[in-house]
Specification:
Rossmann fold; 6-stranded mixed beta sheet; 3-stranded antiparallel beta sheet; 32% helix
């Protein structure tokens, strides 16, 4: 049996340490790396709310975030646990392993989501965009139903979106120039932060935004060659830069905000990918075809592939639960030290 377990991820403004234990049958290897010059929390505003004082977490996003929860079935409806990571994703890890105060999680994310289906069409018409997800929040949760007595000071609203917006649009011929792409991303941001504004009007005051990870390093893009990698890399840089600017604008517009964090996912992804062999990942640029649609167990092995948990990518675009676990630990640490 093969397993990966995060032991420690310590963050400072100049370094973080990743210690991972990999065990295969009766052999155990500890891989520890220190990476200098990395700042994981890109924008953090001091406030009273920390992860330890967060009673309610509301999440919005795409396949990197969804767990299959259907709020329209009721606030107490079961969480199916359908993730893209072949195990607990970052939201489930925050609500489980790193849940230190019985934080209640309401995950409104939808696999394949974009910010607005009218701007970037998802792969299926049934996919709920951020616009749709915020509408669901307004319909089912904004009135604080029984069991969800959230308020402005005890609740965190997390948004991780943009993977599909950038991935589906970066090669469009009508936004082929950097100026056109920049303008289109501005349009996306206008829509995204109009939805954030709706949440603010409903009472949200603390927000967590996550940057789009380096999907230019995902098998889906690598398989398309260097031109595609270069194109989407530029698009990702612009999108994330505009996200950061809009987070700052949000803070400037509303002086009564609580904690507002922009968590940069890129250093974690890049560090793990750059040091994949040392950290025990058997493949950082590809995946095993036998595992791409998920496996019955997190340690499933189908020869000739290594155990599924030893890969970085489950399929062409989605990292495994091991990566999500590291990400969640870093987020919890960041939120816990931001007051």
């Amino acid at each position: 049996m093969f397993s990966i377990r995060l032991l420690a991820l310590e963050l400072t403004n100049v370094a973080f340490v990743v210690s991972v234990v990999f065990s295969h049958k009766h052999t155990m290897v500890v891989a520890t790396r220190t990476f200098l010059g990395v700042l994981l929390g890109a924008t953090i505003v001091s406030s009273q709310l920390t992860w330890g004082s967060t009673e309610f977490l509301f999440t919005f996003g795409d396949s990197y975030t969804t767990d299959g929860f259907n709020i329209s079935a009721g606030v107490d409806s079961p969480v199916p646990g359908f993730t893209s990571s072949n195990g607990p994703n970052w939201v489930q890890a925050l609500g489980g392993t790193y849940n230190i105060t019985s934080t209640k999680v309401f995950n409104l994310a939808s696999g394949g989501a974009t910010i607005d289906s009218n701007l970037v069409q998802p792969y299926l018409p049934t996919v709920l965009s951020i616009v749709d997800q915020v509408e669901q929040f307004e319909q089912f949760l904004s009135n604080k139903p029984a069991g969800v007595q959230w308020n402005s000071s005890n609740s965190l609203f997390a948004l991780w979106i943009g993977i599909n917006d950038v991935g589906n649009s970066y090669a469009w011929p009508n936004i082929s120039s950097s100026a056109q792409q920049h303008q289109f991303h501005k349009t996306l941001m206008t829509t995204l932060f109009s939805q954030v504004e709706k949440l603010y009007v409903s009472g949200a005051r603390s927000f967590l935004f996550l940057t789009v990870p380096p999907t230019n390093r995902a098998p889906l893009i690598l398989q398309q060659g260097s031109e595609a990698v270069a194109k989407i890399s530029a698009a990702l840089d612009d999108y994330n830069a505009q996200l950061a600017l809009n987070v700052k604008s949000l803070q400037a517009k509303h002086r009564d905000l609580g904690q507002v964090s922009l968590f940069d996912t890129r250093p974690i992804f890049n560090t793990l990918l750059d040091n994949a062999k040392t950290l025990g990942f058997v493949n950082a640029t590809g995946f095993c075809d036998a595992y791409q649609n998920g496996t019955p167990d997190t340690n499933t092995q189908i020869a000739p592939c290594a155990p599924v948990s030893s890969y970085f990518w489950l399929n062409t675009l989605h990292p495994l639960f091991t990566v999500h676990n590291i990400l969640a630990h870093a987020i919890a640490t960041s939120l816990s030290t931001s007051a």
